[in-house]
């Protein structure tokens, strides 16, 4: 309930986006923090995970307290899909966590308080993370650990300005209806950056997006939910591509479809897609084996459920054990983009994943692990164009959530295209960045992979 | 993909809303249609329902084809609520049906094609219904019945203008995650009103809202999803109340809260509310009995599951049998409204119902069946003010969906108030009509009872 400042939020976000600073300083801070913190991760058999039990009868993996999360199975019916029925292990974590970034104006420019944080699944240890990344078990202190720094700003926002506050989904292929609360909260007063924390402009973070495995998934999803700067970015364009890019963020720029058309298309897809799922026991899952302390698919494809022991410095809890999902292969996640009428449009795919809370979300043009398709006759649509394009605008390998996924990496790519798609294609639509921004005010429209790519795309706005 | 007409949709909707016509003609048409159609409903024991089976083991009621719907049980945990755990029978109908109203300009004014339709649960037989009211079983012809008139306009909208196309929830106390697709589709060409159908302006329908049990629930939810006329209603005000009412529909009028604040509050409520539900067997449900051919609560409260045989003229199928939910008592559903800064605000309650797809929806200020609270010490908040107020602006008894509910009636009331509510009250907020309109573009924000009341409130705009 703070009085609005003179400049609009969009203008202030645009100014922070265009404020590049000295990247060397950020890297030096990051290297210094890395020296001062350590995390050791050892693989252990699922049967030997301290605190975790295999439930008699169901074979489900759960914590002895019943908190945190469990690994169960999901039986999926999706009539008309290439694979119309399957069963799979899935992480069930009904708790809604907080992913929060604190922002404040420093010398008149918005800065984000970011944290250099280890997660056991990170391939490289430390990654740039939100101010707060807390499950409800964390923040209600089921761990019995130390208090979480800065959490109070997100639990009681009454004295602050709330820029983002929306539940969003995560990977529907690995999580059953997982939702986290994505928050950006602006404080007016002085807030000190503690050890392991640092204030960044949006432009600085944008400059780090292309560094492999640096900006973590939780930071990406929260930042993607921020408005994109709107018309205030206009002056930043330096060529035709960046001109179309900044126009795409402007609500005044015309899209191929109206937002009403896009919403009607989403309704149509969610209505015609007859997804039926049921949680069930992990024991006896067809096609999956539990041997040698891990749960794996007989084909060797998809993912494996493994156990790890973790020892960490500087965490709320110093040591713990947990199951993790370890994907097979590196995914390719790509936006095809095209300038239409002077406005950059993103080719959006309506994707159904078994674990989504609401059937279908807007996904990247391409989202797949190429290896898992090698035994199938049909190639994912547009994959070959992504892999062979000479018009690549963004290309970096980034990690997924290191708290649940072990070494999960995807190659995020933005490619310019001349592809044509029929205006009434059942599965694809061209959207502007501003239309994404409108949808991101609400839950479960834009999937987690598309949120990362939107941030990658925004990072291409030229800075200073 | 039709070219937009010169006048905006809001202007055209406002014009239709202000176009009252001869109410006698509508009543005469209705009476004539009633004479020409009949529906006979006989109660029969659940065990004697043709085509329905009590599933061995679970005791669930389902159709022998596995289609339509089933009656199962829901086990509900809602920590912190006055009743933190209960089990109840619930209707499970995963199919998404279409509730569609066809509109077209007649003499330059938008008209809605409405139908006079029987449903077995209607207390008075015929009610004013949408153009199309079809479950997926209907429109894929599981019934083996006659084709549904006008359905083709909703199944392929490519040649039309889509004004509304959004899935909305229905009663979360009786349905498990029921959603219907609410559609309003505008056609340009000539469309004939068949026997039992008639073209109405929005103003004509508004004039019928206060007639008991006339405008059916399906018509109400679809019409409530239409934009409300925006600033184009401004000229219609005749006094302070109606001035505040039409300003409330105007996006330029300031609300007590921004839409961002409202969305953040919804996120907060949905995050902190730890609703856990599980479908289960109907047999052996604690507190419920299956005796004398019905399922009832031992206390006699809540509702009863009963069976009916139906014979109908002029339907796709001439005779059928089905279970229905018969509520105990008539509910009171009310908006408290107040002029704040010249703009009418509605006091909105964030209500959690076990069957909601997403935990919590925005509900009327009061929504209860007073009798079921008589044995409890706590009266529902604001109920006594509604029952004793001398500032009643709307008061009519309307029916709920007669296809599933037998004689389900609620008293819908709009009352002016001076009540004060803290700006950070955990459960209540003041919203403008335009804010509701923004939320109604998306699924699952505004519950079915609030949608009806919004339409009642809009019907108070003075006409001609």
UniProtKB/TrEMBL annotation, chains A, B:
Residue ranges of the dTDP-4-dehydro-6-deoxy-alpha-D-glucopyranose 2,3-dehydratase domain?
26-226, 261-457
Q: Which Pfam families match?
A: Hexose_dehydrat (PF03559)
Gene3D superfamilies, A to Z? EvaA sugar 2,3-dehydratase subunit
Q: Which residues form a coiled coil?
A: none
InterPro entries this protein is in? EvaA-like (IPR005212), EvaA-like_sf (IPR038153)
Protein name in the entry: NDP-hexose 2,3-dehydratase family protein
């Amino acid at each position: 309930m703070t009085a609005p400042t003179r400049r609009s939020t969009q203008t202030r976000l645009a100014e922070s986006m265009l404020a590049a600073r000295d990247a060397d300083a950020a890297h030096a801070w990051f290297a210094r923090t890395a020296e001062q913190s350590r995390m050791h991760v050892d693989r252990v058999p699922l049967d030997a995970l301290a605190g975790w039990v295999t439930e008699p009868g169901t074979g489900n993996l759960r914590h002895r307290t019943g908190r945190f999360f469990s690994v169960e199975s999901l039986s999926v019916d999706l009539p008309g899909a290439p694979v119309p029925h399957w069963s799979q292990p899935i992480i069930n974590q009904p708790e809604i966590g907080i992913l929060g970034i604190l922002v404040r104006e420093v010398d008149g420019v918005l800065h984000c308080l970011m944290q250099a944080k280890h997660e056991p699944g990170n391939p490289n240890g430390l990654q740039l993370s939100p101010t707060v990344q807390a499950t409800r078990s964390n923040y209600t202190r089921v761990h019995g650990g130390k208090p979480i720094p800065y959490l109070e700003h997100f639990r009681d926002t009454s004295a602050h300005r709330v820029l983002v506050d929306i539940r969003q989904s995560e990977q529907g292929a690995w999580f059953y209806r997982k939702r986290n609360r994505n928050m950006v909260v602006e404080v007016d007063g002085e807030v000190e950056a503690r050890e392991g924390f640092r204030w960044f402009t949006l432009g600085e973070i944008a400059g780090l997006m292309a560094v492999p495995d640096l900006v973590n998934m939780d930071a990406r999803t929260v930042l993607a939910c921020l408005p994109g700067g709107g018309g205030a970015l206009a002056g930043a364009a330096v060529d035709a591509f960046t001109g179309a890019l900044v126009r795409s963020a402007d609500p005044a720029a015309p899209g191929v479809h109206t937002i009403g058309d896009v919403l009607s298309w989403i309704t149509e897809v969610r209505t015609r897609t007859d997804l039926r799922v049921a949680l069930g026991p992990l024991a006896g899952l067809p096609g999956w084996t539990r041997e040698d302390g891990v749960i794996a698919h007989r084909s060797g494809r998809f993912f494996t459920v493994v156990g790890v022991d973790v020892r960490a410095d500087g965490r709320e809890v110093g040591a713990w054990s947990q199951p993790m999902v370890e994907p097979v292969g590196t995914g390719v996640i790509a936006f095809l983009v095209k300038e239409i009428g002077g406005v950059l449009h993103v080719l959006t795919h309506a994707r159904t994943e078994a674990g989504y809370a609401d059937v279908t979300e807007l996904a990247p043009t391409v989202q797949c692990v190429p290896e898992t398709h090698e035994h199938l006759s049909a190639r994912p649509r547009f994959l070959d164009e992504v892999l062979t394009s000479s018009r690549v605008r963004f290309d970096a390998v980034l990690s997924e959530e290191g708290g649940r996924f072990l070494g999960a990496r995807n190659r995020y790519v933005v490619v310019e295209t001349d592809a044509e798609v029929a205006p009434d294609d059942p599965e694809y639509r061209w959207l502007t960045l501003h239309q994404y921004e409108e949808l991101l005010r609400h839950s479960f429209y834009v999937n987690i992979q598309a949120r990362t790519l939107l941030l990658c795309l925004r990072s291409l706005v030229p800075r200073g």
